[in-house]
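User: Predict the full complex structure for these chains.
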Amino acid sequence: MSESFSSSIPLPEFALWDKMKHNKNRGLVSFDLEVTARCNNDCSHCYINLPAGDQEARKKELTLEQISNLADQAVELGALWCLITGGEPLLRPDFFELYMMLKKKGLLLSVFTNACLVTKKHAEFFKKYPPRDIEVTVYGVTKETYEKISRKPGSFEAFMRGLTLLMETGVRIRFKTMALKSNLHELPEISNFCRERTKDYFRFDPQLHLRFDRNPERNELIKAERLSPDEVAAVEKADEERFGALKKGCDKLINPEFEKHVCDHLFRCGAGNGSFSLSYEGFFRLCSSLWHPDTIYDLKRGTLKEAWEKFVPKVRAMRSQNKEFLNKCRKCAIINLCLWCPAHAYLETGGMDSVVDFFCQVAHARSAAIANTK
Amino acid sequence: MTEAIINTSAIYLPSEKIVAREIEGELIIVPLVSGVGDMEDELFTLNDTGKEIWKRLDGKKSLKTIIDELVAEFEAPKEEIEKDVLGLTEELLKRQMLTIAS
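Assistant: Here is the predicted structure of the two-chain assembly.
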C-alpha cells in the first residue's frame, strides 16, 4: 500500500535537515526576506524601522521581480523555508502578489507582523493560503503601554482588531515581545495575554541590540529602553518556562573548557550555516544583524550561488588579532550567555572583535542568577 | 471525504493546489491552499518508489500506461506494481494533490 512510499513526516524529524547538515556543499535550508524597512509604528527600541512614508526607503526596496529572481536562486540552492519580515511586511502594496509568488515556488512561509494593518481581506487570504505560522509582536496589553512603545496613537486598537482577525483564521499564531523599560511592569500580563491565545510558543527577549543603520540618535533611544543587567536576570528568573530551559541548558551554555581554548576565529556561531538574510535593498548577510561592510554582499551585482558558496566561507574564515577580545571573550566560559557576537559587537562599537562591557555585565548577571538557584 | 474510484484508463496530473519539489533527493509536496495535505508541522514526502510513480503522473499517460512502463523497468510482479500505483494515486487524490486530466 501507499504507506510504503509516501509519508507525512513531522518537521523536526525530517531527515532532510540531517542530510543538509552533513552535505559538504553546505545546504541552504531557509532565508529571511526583509521586504521593507518601513513600519506603520515608530517603536523606539526597533533596530530597523523607517517611517511608513519614507519615499527614499521605498524606492530602494527590491521589486517583486527582483525578489522573485532571488527566491528562484534560493530555491535552486535548496531553500525550503522563507520568513517574510520587515519593517512591517503588510506595508508593501504588492504584499499579496509577493506572498503568492513565494508560495508558488514551493517555499514554506512564515510571516512576522505587528498585526496593526491586518484587514478582513488579509485574514481571508491567510485562511485560504495559510502560511506555516504568523509571529505577532506584542508590545503591551494596555493602550498606555503599547502606544508608549509604538509611539503611534490608535495603534493599540488597530493591533487588537488585527490580532482578532488573525486569530479567527485558524492559522498558527506565535507571539513575541521585547522586555523593555517601558513595558517591564506589564510583562507578566503580556505573557498571560499571549499564552492564553496560542497553543504554540510565546517568547520574550530582554536584550536589545542596536540599529542596522547605526543611526546614533535612534541608538540612544534603544539604549534608553535597555533593561539593566540585574533586570535582565530578574525577568528571566521570574519566567518559569524560560528560566527552566536556561538552567537545563546551562551545562552547555557555561563551559569552563572554553577558558583553555586557543582560537582566533571570529565566528563560532551558526551564521551562514543553512540560512541567510536578505535586506530590503538586496544585501545578503550571513545573519540578519551582521552588517559590517566586509560581511555583506550586494545581490543586485552578483549571484546568490556566489554569495553562498564563495563569500560565506570567506567571511566565516575571518580571524581576530585583538588581544583584549582573544583573552576575554574567546576564552570566556559564559560566552553562550552573552549577547556578544561579531554582528552585535559591530553594531555596538564599529568593530567585530570588540569587547562590549554592557553585554559582559548582563552575561555575568545571568550566570549569577543560574548559580544562585543550583 | 468520499472514497476515490480509480480507473486505470484515467489520466492524472499534479493538482494546482500543490507544488512538488525535489531537495537532496527527497520529493516534497508543498500545499498552496488550506485543507490540502498537512498544513501544520508535517511535510508530505515520497520515497524513491513514490517518485517513480509521481514523475509519470504528468497529465499525458494513463495509469495503465504507467503500470506497463514500471513493469518493463522494474523487477517486480505486475500485481504488486499495480497495487502500488493505485494505492498512491488514491492517497494523492484523497489529499487533493492529484487531479484528473481526462
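Chain A has a mean pLDDT of 91.
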